[in-house]
Amino acid sequence: MHKVVTSGLAMCAAATLLLNPATADAASTSGSSSVQFPSSWYEPTPVREKPTWLPDSLGENATVILVPGTSDFTPISASDIGGSGSPMGGDQYGRTVDVGFYDAPGGGASFGPKVVVVQYPAAFGIIVGGKEYDLSGTGTYNSSVDIGTAEGVADAEQAWADRGGSGTIILNGYSQSGPIAMNVAYLLHQKYASGDPDAIPDSDIVVVVGADSRFPNTGIETIIPSFVPGAYTNGARDESDTGDIHVISYCVRGDSVCGMGNPLAHPLATAFYFLPGATIHGQKGNLVNQYEVASTREVGNTTYVVLDGGNPWGIFLRSLGIAVPPEFDDALDALVPVPEPGEASTIAGVRVPTPRDIQVALADALGLQVPVTDPDALAAQGRTWQAPDAAGESNSESVSNESLPRAATTSGAHETFENYLAGAEAGNGVSKAAPESDATSPRAHDGSTGGTTGSTTGTPTSTPQTSTTQIPTTQTATAPSTSAAPVAEPSVSSAPEGDGAPTTSSTGPTSAR
């Protein structure tokens, strides 16, 4: 009862702050006001300290293949990565390198790994009615991921050769670049499993991805049906597809991309937390080393880490400078539970299918297939991913309904689910609804590089990847993902805690709760 009363009072206090701008201003400028609140009421200051859930040696004797996220056109200076710097990737650099991902634990300095920044469109566009609408950058989401995947494979292999075939290759991505990093890992593993003597061994690759859109059960690509050309979704992963590669995938509770609720099971929570979840996803990546570890779960060689920075609305309000007590988070958690990343939604102990699950089931019943674009998802349909051509055009994404390849099946009645829904409308060319701009995208659709396509450790290359060689695969179908079943009780992480490197703040790490 005491906790309920305290929580209720905390919520009333927070509501007063929201409704009274003067009070909110006083709270957000406590340094110049007589009103003083505990530090836990405010957003923590970014610090440089290796997260306890990362391997202590991560970054030692390694090269990082850093893949920028969507619209990450923030430059990285030459003083940070050498050469002439990079025209993109600064946001991803800031939420990984700058917060100690590759530092020694226990107060040690950075291991100083070489950082190679993958250059690709980092765009988000869709195709509607045969027209391409570029919502961010230039190009569709699927095409951007395909190009990033091809560039990432080339960069990783070049880095391995530059290292003389020794050390560790770290594939790092976030949001859009999370699937790219995972695609690269999948293709590198397939090459290694095929017996290619030049392939990078699985044991020498580590993947660190944040806010993966294909996070099991709650990633947005496991929730949203695959029906929008240019932004097709690929469903959950089969963790065995990356072999013995060590994968670390982390997600913050409330993140709208990796921790989305199932609208069919919990429509209120899904809608209620979408806005603050977008803030967590887009702006709070540099605080993950201060968030509590809510759970860890291992599936094969993949470790899923769920982080808790507080209730999404509490995080959102603190980001505005509004002082909010931790009790507010606890009360809101009780009133509207936050979807738990990685856990399937259930009602009365029964798993509730996501909208995409229903789409797949319907397609199966009709003898059809949903459109997919990622290499592993294509392989599960008996199809092979191919690298984009020399002009940077993706060929795994269907522009017209007839051009999407059919999977190899035993029945001639099989066709793509896209064709079924669209009535097999053929021959529709794609026209641009938004003008291309070299100033807003690192790569133009005419195949020119704009001086940025390729990889860079400071000096962007001016030659796009031209290889269209198919990556050999060792299978044409994958077993059902272990992520499709309800998640078992999470295990407690036993990773040793390190004190991290010297922080960028005069204060120590601050708890977010």
UniProtKB/TrEMBL annotation:
Its keywords, alphabetically, are: Signal
Q: Where is the composition biased (Low complexity)?
A: 393-403, 454-513
Transmembrane annotation, as ranges: none
Q: Where is this region: Disordered?
A: 384-411, 428-513
Q: Which residues form the signal peptide?
A: 1-26
Identify the SUPFAM superfamilies for this entry.
alpha/beta-Hydrolases
InterPro entries linked to this entry:
AB_hydrolase_fold
Gene3D superfamilies noted in UniProt: alpha/beta hydrolase
Which domain of life, per UniProt?
Bacteria
Name the UniProt record assigns to this protein: Uncharacterized protein
The species is Gordonia otitidis (strain DSM 44809 / CCUG 52243 / JCM 12355 / NBRC 100426 / IFM 10032)
